[in-house]
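Input sequence (377 aa), recorded before submission:
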Amino acid sequence: MTTAGQGLDFSASRSKIRYSNSFNSLSARRMSSIRKVAKDAGVSIATVSRVINGSGAVTPDMRDRVMASVAKCGYSPTVGRKSHGSIALVYAGPCTIASPYDSACLAGIVGAMEESPFDLQIVNIRRDKRPDETFAQFFMRRSVEGAIVRCTAAERRLVSQIHQDGFPVVVLGDHFEAEGLKFVYNDSQAASQEAVEYLISLGHRDIAFAASDRDDGDHLDRLRSYRETMSQHGLADDRLIYKLPAIQEDGTQLMRKMLGAARRPTAVFIADPLVALGAINEAHNLGVRIPDDMSFVGFDDAELRYAVHPKMTAVCQNSVELGSRAFQYLVHQTTENPASVPPELRGEAWLEIHHSSGPVPAGAASRSETVTSGAGV
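Predicted structure, token format:
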């Protein structure tokens, strides 16, 4: 796994943070920070406390002035009786915690937190946030000191607003242009391109792509790599692209649609593990021989490739490790000068070749030669 930027050493797979030292430095700064906020806003410490806790009568102008100073001073207190607060795994949009990716990331987060003083909260921010409070107030009310956020393209503006409120945020899985925001993700573009090139090298020309309807940076990167690689070889055809929800049942529907298509694929690259599982199971039910009749390349966030028959060729990523590093990255952002923390932590996905992929069937190879280059794009 590689890191982008300087200043953090995450080269060891089980790297540790001395949480006691980090937490002590954070606690020592809090007392001076609240005074700094009060001084900057020109109000009393009691007024600052009322604003950030959402208690007491405070005018809108006063609240705006104090929250502007909170953001300016980078103040992130712990609220309540505990000597430490929580880290939140925040869903800005649909809650996908049961997915293989989220489950693996969560396992990594929990594992990394074992020696930390923090608790973990799972937060659906659209449901739980009060209409009259800022994002910073919402998190402070819940004793949350930093957030690992899951989002899609539709929620990017909301995530930027959380960051603009001066709250420590790490975006997990998605990545986009936003000044000051921090991102943790695995780059799957090169491995996705390699997967398509591999299928082409086996003689496949009618290569379908099953895209998730979740429009985050990870999934958009995989679709982009597929499109670009197919186009470079004169094989692009939008009829070969299937967009569907990332659930196992839709893998069943995908398989039926491909078999009934006018341009029937000889291979498919499936960008989600549950869809791949459903499609492979349905292929067996319909008597499709893998890889003799159709080759499958999936995407694996954990170890699902070993749980299907035949063992699945897949673009793989270590999502457990990604979750662990997201937590460590957030702690660094919370306890160090944010300017010293690099803008992103990026790992690399890789292609593993197993038994679900093979040469194009002989009859299909001759049919593919008659396909017009670039049709449908």
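Checked by second reader. Confidence is low (pLDDT under 50) at residues 1-32, 78-83, 370-377.
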